[in-house]
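Incident review: delayed structure delivery

Summary: a single-chain prediction request sat in the queue longer than the usual turnaround. Root cause was a stuck worker, restarted by the on-call engineer. No data loss occurred. The affected request and its eventual output are reproduced below so the record is complete for anyone auditing the incident later.

Affected input:
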Amino acid sequence: MAAEPKDSGVSFAPFFDRCKLPASVKHDCDTFVMTRYSETARPAPFQGYCSYTVFVGEEIVVQFRPLAHKLDISITNTACKIFGPLAPETEFLGELGSTGLYVFSMRRIPGVSLADLRAETKTLQAKSRREQIVRDFAYLQATSWRNGINHSDVREKRMVGSSLRWRMELMTKNIPSRFRGIARSVLADLPEIEALPWTLSHGDFLPSNIMVCPESGKLLGLLDWAEAEYLPFGVGMYGLQELLGEDKDGHFVYYPEAKHLRNLFWAELLSKVPELSQNSKRVALIRKAQILGIFLWHGIAFDDGKLDRTVEEGKDDEEIERLDAFLLSRSGIRPLKLRHIHPIVDSPIAFIRDLLSGKACC
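Output delivered after worker restart:
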């Protein structure tokens, strides 16, 4: 889903202003932490859009969140059960007086954020680290597949899962016209996509939420599970695009080895889920579910969590640029040829064109 930029540095005012809270509430948050814990506490140097975060010692994180961005403990517990140490154990500590803020503690995940790692000037190991994170993303998806459940067994669909058709219908009408043909193609196959196993998707797979080992690039964990929910398998693969390139001077640019990284992901995934390698039709459907994920996360405007309108030219240009890059651009991808596609080696644009022309593998 399209999200506004994260707060940076040590500026805390924007979060409290967005929550319409006086500046004194920050003191109340800090006092709550100091009263509860004996270890040294300090505000996190980089604050998220949806919370005020405090580090306690070296192993504990305390977050204060408004109702709209409250963590669901049942979801965070499920994430820990499925993904182990990649998801932080989380405890609900209660409400902070009458402020409307909910307080959570969680295990601090080691490493550095992928955003911080990319900001480094050293590039000697950049390619190997990119390969490592892509392999680990494939492992993450394979793990979710092994823990998938039937569509009918999803007890409670959340904001996105309960409105897939409505959102895609909205985009076929209102999204910039160059994307509508692809949106209609996804909408036509939505019943089959929804019949795939439903798996827990993180929901906010951004470089600032991805913790990695700075030396190897190994995935160590994911922060901020507030938007996690069960969705058809493949939808969460929208996050792969964020690993194939990065923002340069305000524009998304694919890495020179983007095609190699994409192929590496599919090779790793199919090696970990061998039953998929024998079913090219299902792989094609999963890749279309990935396109659905790209639409859901970049075609719907965030609007402080409302998620009820499509992105618009001149208003949501950052997200529209990502749709151009992810759905229409050849950047970092080999030249296109309309042909019978192979599920591992072809680019998303070739796949999309074949879907629209009826030439996708079956």
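Verification: The longest strand covers residues 60-66.
Action items: add queue-age alerting; document worker restart procedure.
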